[in-house]
Amino acid sequence: MTPRVLIVVGFIAALGGVLYLTSERGPRSTEAPEAGTPLPTAVSRPSRPGKVVDVTFLYSTEKKDWVEAAARDFERAHPSIRLTLVGRGSLEAAQAILEGREQPTVWSPADSAVLRMLASDWATDASRGPLFAEAGEQAPRPLVITPLVFVVWADRAEVLRKASGGGAVSWKVLQKAVTSPRGWPAIGGKGEWGLVKLGHTDPTRSNSGLQALLLATLEYYGKRGGLTVEDLLDPGYQDWMKALERGVTRFEASTGTFMADMVRFGPSRYDIAVVYENLAIAQVSQAQGRWGELKVSYPALTLWSDHPAAVLQGDWVTPAQKEAALEWLRYLHSRPVQERALQFGFRPADPAVPLKTADPDNPFTRLASHGVQVDVPPVAEVPEGPVVRDLLMLWSRVLTSGR
């Protein structure tokens, strides 16, 4: 099994578990970024007196705006700490750390499961110590949380809602729509809309794509959890899932860039997309002036992403960097920064920060007409490791073969 598959398998196997450990950071990778990977961003700040400590923060791209806003304020208050921000898809980042292509000081993937998976794969080399601390202030903690949602252009959303029986958008209805040569008219839409264009990220590179596969599979079997290897080997399921995946126009590496493309290119590229709630919240207003109204729809079952932050314990991280990294994490967990996360569509990890506030800019009240809601549907149960392994192998070998 390839390192990438190992990374992904470990990720999903851990996906529903207890939140993992927090850790540290290190000097950034000296290698050039992969194609499509955002370049590192050095946060501009006033001149720094005395010795400066460098902290590289590798993070999942969907929290880019919140992270960059926090970093600007942090560096003004901490002139002796220089932050370098590197945005990358969670699974790609895990693979890069495992292979030594990235050596960050702090890492924050989209989900604790990815972090735990990397810790497990890292431990297969007995010559190096644990990558993350297991207790104390350096143990990983979530920064913000967000569920998986559908984002649909408003006119299409109404058609999908009716076709789904008036409730949550159904994966089975989506599969019927994307597989029909009639396109949108097959479920009551307009012929001028053409074929149904579904979008989700590459599940071997991005957390949200993997979550999409799980939710579609669970709905096919009418389950909330308990998927088995035998379920995945069923020919009827494989045919159904392969047809669904044929309707995905492209598999992007990052959920953040994927959502931006939906707004940039409009329904000419995507009719409906599977993304994180925070990205939907961030983009619905921007879409209004370009292509029309976007609606947020919560699936009948969803999955959480808890965005843990960890200071890496690698030998490239110095004691001074560890302390500087902890200052950065303390700042991100502070009440004002947690409250500001609401402005970027995140649900704060701090349970003391309310979602419903009197602030007119609070997106959970301001965007209610777009479908944004405080209450979240039931959360799916994550399958065991062997099921995840076979699901990913199935996706790579069968479901997307020939693409």
TrEMBL record:
<dbReference type="GO" id="GO:0030973">
    <property type="term" value="F:molybdate ion binding"/>
</dbReference>
<protein>
    <submittedName>
        <fullName>Extracellular solute-binding protein</fullName>
    </submittedName>
</protein>
<dbReference type="InterPro" id="IPR050682">
    <property type="entry name" value="ModA/WtpA"/>
</dbReference>
<feature type="region of interest" description="Disordered">
    <location>
        <begin position="27"/>
        <end position="47"/>
    </location>
</feature>
<dbReference type="Pfam" id="PF13531">
    <property type="entry name" value="SBP_bac_11"/>
</dbReference>
<dbReference type="GO" id="GO:0015689">
    <property type="term" value="P:molybdate ion transport"/>
</dbReference>
